[in-house]
Amino acid sequence: MEEKTIMCTCGHVNPPGTQLCQSCGKLINDDYDKKKTTDIMRYDGSAVRSKTKNKTLLDKVWNFFASVKTGVTLLVITVIASAIGTLFPQQYFIPLGQDPATFYKEKYGSLGYLYYKLGLDNLYTSWWFLILLAIVAFSIIAASIDRGVPLFKSLKNQRVKKHPSFFKRQRITLETRDQTSVEAITKILTSKKYKVRVEDGHILAEKGRLSRYGPYINHAGLIILLFGSMFRFMPALYVDEFVGVAEGETKAIPGTKNEYYIKNNQFIFEQYNQDSKSNINSKSADASMNKIAKNYESKVTIYKNTADTSIVGSKPKLTKLKDDSIRVNHPAKFAQFGLYQNSFDQSTLKTMTFKVIDNESQKQIGKTLTVNLDNPTKHYKISNDINVNLRNYAPDFDSVAANGTLNTKSPIPNNPAFVFEVVDPNHKEYSLLKIRSHQDISKNNQYSIKFVNATNKTTTYLTVKKDLTLPILFAGFTIFLLGLAVGSYINHRRIWINTNDGLMVAAHTNKNYFGLKQEMNTMFESIGLPNVRDKYETEEENNER
Questions:
Q1: 10 Å Cβ neighbour count for 74?
Q2: How far lies 195's CA from each of 214, 297, 300, 336, 495, in Å?
Q3: What DSSP letter does each residue of 467-491 carry, written as one string?
Q4: Are 48 and 149 in contact (CB under 8 A)?
Q5: Cβ neighbours of residue 521 under 8 Å, at least 6 residues apart?
Q6: Backbone angles phi and psi of 213, in degrees to 5
Q7: What is the pLDDT of residue 49?
Q8: Closest by Cα among 446, 404, 448, 450 to 427
Q9: Closest Cα partner for 342 from 326, 325, 354?
């Protein structure tokens, strides 16, 4: 069943739920509290959908999300959820290579472990947080449409003529028998930047209408900010990854779908001199306290893969894009990506050097052998008649299997172990070498293999960034600030004047009635009219008496 339209005594047919006649401004809803002038004038008496329709399920859903109370509640929940995400570091910020469960438990105890188990370590990328942002955005949109559309229509279709009861209901009024020409009133109003409309002795003067749209401009900015935040979860628009590249290594750049590769040509690490000036006597201080990084820099080459990346397992065909240098706050940029210097690691073993010792003479035989731990060579010739063969190798030694092979925990050389075969013209013998440990596998070995030294490799860690959402976020924030300025510093002022049979004046503003009253008194005094009356001030004066 459709709701009935409301016909005013002036003959104008108004939509259901209208409080003030759209034509003459007369109050046409007797059930409404006539004292709530401000509430009626907020939307110029127009019908707000959420206040008039509540029958179907769609109406109820719309009314729920269009409610200011619902919007505020959702914003409070979002703020609380965001605050919870800052109690402990998000998983993105924990040290590279660490197990999140172990990190949170060891660092923050049972509360940290519960934080991890509840998934709060990835709160801002969780499905429920994204849904919450979407619901907040929908609530803002619903509230804006529910109130903004009726307001826009009522202000766009304002009538100049108003019913006498409309004048009496306004806060600022004036009724006098003094006569003043319409031309004089129009001239003084125009000089104060009012837009003036005249119709049969009735005058409507208005300025600052943009102020009424300030909250809706705010809402538009917030919606853009929310969508910009949600767009950050789309890989096509936002990438924030890490890549670790050892010196001499070439690796695909994450987030580029193997379209781009990077080679670490050289890593440079510089420190300030330990005798450098400081706020204390540096010579008397611990020298380690003065080892402050001066510069760490990656010399890299960026390649583009011209092979068809849609074919799984296809070998990359790399075309050099450019050589570049990456320093802190000085990224290397290519396409829509940026590579930022994050950190470095010099603790990983690169090579280990050994020597062969004659057990009887305890002298070194031949030259040393150097094993590349990433890609070890199988055969080493140390003299004319002695060769050393690498029979087995475990980068991160765990145990010896039943078949005699070495088990490894990981491919990273954290705890390397080797099985060497020493071959001379007369026999072969085998030895197991681990860090700080040597064990003969064969009996009565003639030779021993001893550790000489090791070198470490430097791995540079880079942050891969791609952010196409920044213009969206910047636009949303700018629009939000613009709406804030419009709503705060502009006043919407309207003055209605009826010059027929004396002079009847009424005025309304969305804020600063004192300023409006002073402006009107100044204007009216210049054309010989009395001061206007503020209904609220008059009531206060009467109450004091």
A1: 19
A2: 20, 64, 65, 49, 10
A3: ESSHHHHHHHHHHHHHHHHHHHH--
A4: no
A5: 531, 532
A6: -95, 0
A7: 65
A8: 446
A9: 326
Average pLDDT across each block of 10 residues of the chain; the chain has 545 residues. List them in order: 64 66 63 49 60 77 89 94 92 80 90 92 90 92 87 85 86 88 92 94 93 92 91 89 90 92 91 56 46 82 88 84 92 94 87 92 92 92 92 91 88 90 90 82 86 90 93 95 93 92 90 93 92 82 62
The C-alpha angle 14, 38, 54, rounded to 5 degrees, equals: 50
Find tokens 């919450």 and name the residue.
132
Measured in whole angstroms, how far is the alpha carbon of residue 144 from the centre of its chain? 24
**What's the CA gap between 504 and 202, in Å, rounded?**
10
Spatial distance between the Cα atoms of 127 and 106, rounded to a whole number of angstroms: 27
pLDDT at 34: 47
Range list of H helices, 157-213: 164-169, 182-191
State how far the Cα of 509 lies from the Cα of 500, in Å rounded to an integer: 24
Give the number of C-alpha atoms closer than 13 A to the C-alpha of residue 530, restricted to the C-beta side. 14
pTM of the entire structure? 0.70
Contact 75, 136 (CB under 8 A): yes
Q: How many residues does the chain have?
A: 545
pLDDT reported for residue 286: 46
> Which strand (E) or helix (H) includes residue 508?
strand 503-509
Partners of 456 in the β-ladder: 349
Position 11 scores a pLDDT of 65
Q: What Cα–Cα distance (Å) separates residue 44 from each residue in 41, 144, 373, 487, 496?
A: 4, 16, 80, 18, 14
DSSP state of 296: E
Distance CA 543, CA 545 (A): 5
Is there a contact between 126 and 116 (Cβ–Cβ < 8 Å)? no
pLDDT for the residue 50: 62
- Whole-number pLDDT of residue 289: 47
User: Phi and psi at residue 114, in whole multiples of 5°?
Assistant: -60, -40
Amino acid at 75: L
Instruction: Dihedral sign for Cα 21, 25, 26, 28, please.
Output: positive
Whole-angstrom Cα distance, residue 222 to residue 230? 12
